[in-house]
Structures are given as structure tokens and as C-alpha cells.
Amino acid sequence: MNYQNEVHFTPMKAYSPYHSPYDPCPPLKIKYYSTPPQLYMHFQPPNLEQFPPHEALMRGTLWKPLYDYYDNPYKKGIHGHG
Q1: Is there a contact between 21 and 66 (Cβ–Cβ < 8 Å)?
Q2: Is the dihedral of CA 58, 61, 63, 68 positive or negative?
Q3: Range 25-28 contact pairs with CB under 8 angstroms and sequence separation of 24 or more
Q4: Which residue from 67, 77, 74, 66 is spatially nearest to 14, judged by alpha carbons?
Q5: Burial 22-58 (b: 16+ CB within 10 A, else e)
Q6: What pTM was computed for the model?
Q7: 27: which of 9, 14, 75, 82 lies 20 to 30 Å off by Cα?
Q8: Which residues on adjacent β-strands are paired with residue 15?
Q9: Is there a contact between 9 and 40 (Cβ–Cβ < 8 Å)?
Q10: pLDDT tens string 37-66
């Protein structure tokens, strides 16, 4: 069973918070948050593909399906904002 073919989630979510007319700072119209892949796994499947040990230390996980690259949505040009 290949876990990569079963991924049906979006790692980056967005929402529009309430903005008071009395907020002292200019508001962010859209706020983003990330959801890690382990939230969408019921149990850790056996025989998951692994990173080599040195690469696993740099990525923060041993298992490739649990690696989640973080892309800053507030950088200029991403999602049409900035």
C-alpha cells in the first residue's frame, strides 16, 4: 500500500478573522495555519519509507510521509498577497 497515493488533505488552511473598527494595528485579512500530516493518519502504517539518518535529523522526522515542508504564506507573491 502506497501512502502517498492516499493523501487527501491540504497542509495549509486559511480563515478570515473578525476585524474591529477599533483595532490599533492594520489587520491581516486572511490568516493561515498549517496542519501536520499525522493528523490525517489513523495509525502509523507498517513499513513506511524512511529518510537516511542524516537527512532525517535535518527534516525532523524519520518517515517520509510524515515530513511537512513549511512554506511561509505571508511572503510576497505567495497566495497573491504581499
Answers
A1: no
A2: negative
A3: 28/74
A4: 74
A5: eeeeeeeeeebeeeebeeebeeeeeeeeebeeeeeee
A6: 0.60
A7: 9
A8: 31
A9: yes
A10: 888 888 878 899 999 999 999 999 999 988
